[in-house]
Amino acid sequence: MTMATEMRVYLRLPSRIMFDGSAVRLRGEAPNGSFGILPNHVDLVTPLVSSVLLIAQADGTERIFGIDEGLLVKKGHRVEVAVRRAVETDDLDQMRDIVRDSFAGLEDEERAARAALSRLEADMVRRFASLRKAQG
């Protein structure tokens, strides 16, 4: 592997890519504690816990993401981060409120979707039961 000053970072959600860009440093949190990655860091795979993901770019910009649980894979100069949910903010002090509000809305939608799926499954079971009675 060649020595590099930057790495390519992808922050992926189930529905879209939230961040795709170069970085000089990344900070995250795994179940066993926080960690940092530089471009020439050894390859690794680690689970992520709900926390703050910090991506520092070469121009000095720091991108701050509140993330849900996920997985980080670093191979070569490429870092892939896959999480269920994430929000970006410039204000670390307001991160807790932003995450709570954003994730709460998503949890309500997920709960409604699970309820609808349960109703569909129950209806399908009833229909199969009525078909079985009609045949017997």
From TrEMBL:
Keywords assigned by UniProt, alphabetized:
ATP synthesis, Cell inner membrane, Cell membrane, CF(1), Hydrogen ion transport, Hydrolase, Ion transport, Membrane, Transport
Instruction: Give the bilayer topology.
Output: Peripheral membrane protein
Q: Which residue range or ranges hold the ATP synthase F1 complex delta/epsilon subunit N-terminal domain? A: 7-86
Gene Ontology CC terms, in alphabetical order: endomembrane system; plasma membrane; proton-transporting ATP synthase complex
Instruction: Check the record and name the CDD domains matching this protein.
Output: F1-ATPase_delta (cd12152)
* GO terms assigned for molecular function: ATP binding; hydrolase activity; proton-transporting ATP synthase activity, rotational mechanism
Coiled-coil stretches: none
Where it sits in the cell: the answer is:
Cell inner membrane; Endomembrane system
Tell me, in a sentence or two, what this protein's role is. Produces ATP from ADP in the presence of a proton gradient across the membrane.
Identify its protein family. Answer: Belongs to the ATPase epsilon chain family.
Q: What is annotated about its quaternary structure and interactions?
A: F-type ATPases have 2 components, CF(1) - the catalytic core - and CF(0) - the membrane proton channel. CF(1) has five subunits: alpha(3), beta(3), gamma(1), delta(1), epsilon(1). CF(0) has three main subunits: a, b and c.
* Name of protein: ATP synthase epsilon chain
